[in-house]
Sequence to fold (130 residues):
Amino acid sequence: MNDSSSITSGVEVSVQTQYSATHSKPHFGRYFFLYTISIKNKNNYSIQLLKRHWDIYDSTGEFNQLSGKGVVGVQPVIEPNQIYTYTSGCSFKSDAGKMSGFYTMLRLFDEKEFEIKIPEFVMILQAKLN
Fold:
């Protein structure tokens, strides 16, 4: 399992990753990884996650961008000192890849949008690290 974290504008984003053998088919060039993201609002005001943007790199050299509303079908409101956690996944053609990006957030008290960084995190088959 790999860990990454960063803080932007009083919002901490932490990521943990793991390989999912049950969802992978290496003989067909499909390696599936799960990532769990925790977003902690360290501010004294409520925020809402509106959008996400991902830059996704496969170790084969393939690059993809993905943007959309919310995460896992929701646009959560995160109260001061609260944490919102979700798990999602990504499939690669190789046994390693990486992702990074940003969330577009909304400060609820003045409806001002701002972006917070999603730190780069690497997903790699543990056997490659031995």
Remarks:
- The chain has no helices and nine strands.
